[in-house]
Write a structure and sequence with these properties.
This protein is α+β, with helices and mostly antiparallel strands. Helices cover about 65% and strands about 10% of the residues.
Length: about 450
């Protein structure tokens, strides 16, 4: 087994120079990888992961062979300090902007690739090698050492990511949206664990001294501070973090159990249904509706909120009975659902009220949607039941409001105007708010 080569320099200037060089390494590394991550929607996230995988080999190689001295006699490796710390903080950015299922993809790929490296390395040594250069030969011992370190490092990375996501989410109630503090504290805690775990394998394979453990930890804490500032700047200036998640998700495997957002949200959606109609219930409106509006505002895309109210529904129940009222509710819900687009959501709000969140649909399209629903319901005839009509109030994002509460209040106000105008109509612009319902759609 080879031993770590520590670059020792007694000159203070050389130690300071090493600090500056490590800082330059970190800036170049973060800028290149963050640039690839930001371009993922144009060129795919595979380019980012491929670059990350190449750096994984280099970081392990440097961590096993090259260490430099820093001020106060600190000994650290560029591999651990710059490349590994940077990789972990970048994976945290992936989680913030994507989800845990994306984070785990490169980890599984690295683990399988490292196992493949060991397996093929074992088979390659069985080949009869041609003598091309007597002074140079394949160092299979080094290959074995590198493969073992890379597998060990990837297993630790798997644990690091679970801890990282869990800690980051647990810090939400304490630190809120103070991104710099959450990134820094999460990185410091996870990399403290990582330094101790990786040093255990490093000492076993290379005989690394204790100075590597403590010096590496101090260097990683400094790197966490730098990468946290860069990450917070990236999120603030280039990409806003996703909002709306209040607690860690719960799913089947280790990653999913903690953080798999898509399935968690789907679970909430499926469990929050109105028992009669199957529409999403009022509780889901508060969570999913608010989240959808926030996403539309951040993305700058149109969104409309439409409240549909069954005219005189209480009187209908009193006159014909609740069983007939249930039939009307089901009829109205089916009509509304048949008019919805693939990204739209329908909620039963209260009694005879339904709320429609029409994503990517501007005001004019939402008017057409509301009028189609109104006309279809009014045209339905039944010998056993009188004609049913509905009224609607519409609000558009961001012309009327840029948050869920404002949109809902605006649509509710316009619904009241529709009722005052005689019902069986849809009101949906500011002129209607002023008492002149210029955009009222009636039969």
């Amino acid at each position: 087994m080879s031993h770590i080569a520590v670059g020792v320099s007694a000159a203070p200037g050389a130690a300071v120079g090493n600090v500056l060089l490590l800082g330059a390494d970190a800036l170049i590394y973060f800028a290149a990888l963050a640039g690839l991550f930001r371009a993922r929607h144009r060129i795919g996230i595979g380019a980012f992961f491929c670059a990350l995988g190449v750096m994984h080999f280099l970081e392990t190689y440097l961590a096993s062979i090259l260490y430099v001295t820093l001020p106060f006699a600190i000994v650290a490796s560029p591999g651990s300090t710059v490349l590994f710390t940077g990789k972990l903080m970048l994976l945290l950015l992936v989680y913030i902007r994507e989800d845990a299922v994306v984070v785990r993809q490169p980890i599984y790929g690295l683990l399988i690739g490292n196992l493949l490296l060991l397996a093929l390395g074992f088979l390659v040594r069985l080949h009869g090698a041609a003598a091309l250069d007597a002074a140079r030969g394949a160092d299979f011992g080094f290959l074995d050492q590198m493969g073992a370190l890379m597998i060990w490092g990837t297993l630790i990375l798997f644990a690091d990511c679970i801890m990282m996501i869990l800690i980051y989410e647990r810090l939400r109630p304490v630190l809120g949206e103070r991104m710099l503090a959450r990134l820094a504290l999460t990185g410091a805690l996870v990399l403290s664990f990582d330094q101790a775990a990786f040093y255990t394998g490093l000492r076993h394979l290379t005989g690394a001294p204790l100075s590597v453990l403590f010096g590496g930890w101090l260097a990683k804490m400094a790197a966490v501070a730098l990468y946290s500032m860069l990450g917070a700047l990236y999120l603030r200036r280039l990409e806003s973090p996703r909002r709306g998640q209040k607690r860690p998700p719960r799913l089947r495997d280790v990653f999913d159990l903690l953080t798999y957002r898509e399935r968690y949200e789907d679970l909430l959606t499926r469990s929050g249904r109105d028992a009669l109609t199957g529409a999403l219930d009022r509780g889901r409106l508060e969570y999913l509706g608010r989240k959808r509006v926030e996403e539309a505002v951040q993305a700058g895309r149109p969104l409309s909120l439409l409240i549909i109210d069954i005219d005189h529904f209480k009187n209908f129940n009193d006159r014909f009975g609740y069983s007939s009222g249930d039939i009307v509710l089901m009829r109205v819900f089916r009509t509304v659902m048949s008019a919805m687009g693939p990204g739209d959501m329908v909620f039963r709000y209260d009694g005879g009220d339904f709320v429609v969140i029409a994503d990517a649909l501007p005001r004019a399209g939402a008017f057409a949607l509301g009028e189609h629903i109104r006309r279809t319901i009014a045209a339905q005839k039944d010998d056993m039941m009188p004609c049913v009509t509905v009224s609607g109030g519409l609000a558009a994002c961001a012309e009327d409001a840029s948050d869920f509460d404002g949109l809902f209040a605006c649509a509710d106000r316009r619904l009241a105007l529709a009722k005052a105008a005689g019902r069986n109509c849809v009101v949906g612009d500011a002129a209607g708010d002023l008492g002149t319902p210029r955009l009222v759609l009636t039969g």
